[in-house]
Design goal:
Layout lengths: L4 E5 L1 H13 L4 H4 L4 H10 L1 E6 L7 E9 L10 E2 L4 H7 L3 E9 L5 E9 L1 H24 L13
Antiparallel strand pairs: 1-6, 2-3, 3-4, 3-5, 5-6
Bound molecules: zinc ion.
Pfam families: DUF5318
Organism: Paractinoplanes aksuensis
InterPro entries: DUF5318 (IPR035169)
């Protein structure tokens, strides 16, 4: 997504947890503890993936996107469909997205990544674009006959 920033990837932590599960240091019950809320969020708002559950290998993982931020008011902490995020990113200045992978068979769940979305990033882009437009129209003026040497190299 265009406004995505400050991405934190938790795949190393996930690998460490899975290693401990395979070593028997952590029981599967400890990591397959998705709450009924998380499971229903996966069912109703989840994004299906092609990735098999690393624990039970019976089902593909589902990604659930939770959103947080002051601007969200009472809807903070809710799960949203991935397709809803670009719309929110256009209307809100900044909000945090937490992506949790869930297996709907065995209840394995793990935070996979977090990032910021929102118009704050776009504003910076748009400022850049405005400056570029201003610069090129200024350059256009300098291309008028007799003004070629004026200011063109000054930047
Ligand atoms: Zn599973």
């Amino acid at each position: 997504m265009r406004t995505q920033r400050q991405v934190v990837d938790y795949s190393l932590q996930k690998r460490a947890v899975l290693r401990d599960v395979h070593n028997g240091k952590i029981g599967t019950l400890e990591v397959c503890d998705a709450s009924p809320y998380l499971k229903s969020a996966a069912r109703f708002h989840g994004e299906p993936t092609e990735e098999r559950c690393p624990i039970c290998r019976r089902d593909n993982l589902t990604l659930v996107h939770y959103i947080y931020g002051d601007e969200l008011k009472q809807t903070a902490g809710q799960a949203r469909k991935l397709s809803e995020l670009p719309v929110l990113a256009m209307t809100l200045r900044e909000f945090q997205v937490y992506v949790v992978e869930v297996c709907q068979s065995c209840a394995w769940n793990h935070l996979t990544e977090q990032y910021l979305l929102g118009r704050d990033a776009l504003t910076a882009d748009e400022l850049d674009r405005d400056e570029a437009v201003a610069a090129s129209s200024a350059a256009g003026r300098h291309r008028e006959p007799g003004l070629m040497s004026h200011g063109w190299d000054a930047r």
